[in-house]
């Protein structure tokens, strides 16, 4: 875990979430914001956040407009809604607007910590009893991941396959008989098309939709297996 932004206008809530994160994750740098404008300012300033915990009712949010604004501005940054309210419609709407999870503030700290770990592993979290909303959101998210992977060129897909397999740039260059500079250019293009900031995030997305190599006799060099 690297950097997490806690965005909530209530200091006591921020204190509680800070305690959960400090206990659950080693070497976690915690940042705080009290409204949407401050949230955006911090994300722009830091640039490499791993997670945002967002209160729907803090100043500037205007319902789900604030969440939609964050998802459009930072499509690769996971945003988890942390709310005092919890009903099926609210959770479903949050996930439909692009939240990576919905965590009620009333949940035990251990459950909140587990939920956040799951989100960082590429899962979508919703409270128990809301499986339908969670399943719909997960299906939409996986469809979007497949669309991004489908935008890769055959050579980029081959490079992604090797990245997923844990190969270093120099190993990929040797296997594909190209320079490391060429490999780095492919990796940068892959990260941009997948809308992620790192190789690790690219691997998480690929594994989430079971990205696997395709037969190399004709056709594309890799494919995304459907569920």
Q: Any key phrases for this structure?
A:
227 residues, alpha/beta, Arc Repressor Mutant, subunit A, 2 domains, five-stranded parallel β-sheet, 10 helices, elongated
Report on the structure:
The protein is α/β, with parallel strands linked by helices and 227 residues long. It folds into 2 domains: 3-141, Rossmann fold (3-Layer(aba) Sandwich), CATH 3.40.50.2300; 151-224, Arc Repressor Mutant, subunit A (Orthogonal Bundle), CATH 1.10.10.10. The protein is built from 10 helices and 7 strands. The protein has helices spanning 11-24, 36-46, 65-73, 88-96, 109-120, 131-150, 154-164, 169-176, 180-194, 199-208; strands spanning 3-7, 29-33, 51-54, 79-83, 101-104, 211-213, 222-224. The protein has a 5-stranded parallel β-sheet with strand order 2-1-3-4-5, sandwiched between helices. Helix 4 (88-96) links the parallel strand 4 (79-83) and strand 5 (101-104). Helix 7 (154-164) packs across helix 9 and helix 8 (169-176) packs across helix 9 (180-194). The longest helix has 20 residues, at 131-150. The chain is elongated, with a radius of gyration of 19 Å.
Give the C-alpha Rg. Answer: 19 Å
Helix share, percent: 40-55%
CATH architecture of the largest domain: 3-Layer(aba) Sandwich
Tell how many strands the DSSP assignment holds: 7
The string of secondary-structure elements, in order, is EHEHEHEHEHHHHHHEE
Helices and strands, with pairings:
Elements: E1 3-7, H1 11-24, E2 29-33, H2 36-46, E3 51-54, H3 65-73, E4 79-83, H4 88-96, E5 101-104, H5 109-120, H6 131-150, H7 154-164, H8 169-176, H9 180-194, H10 199-208, E6 211-213, E7 222-224
Parallel strand pairs: 1-2, 1-3, 3-4, 4-5
Antiparallel strand pairs: 6-7
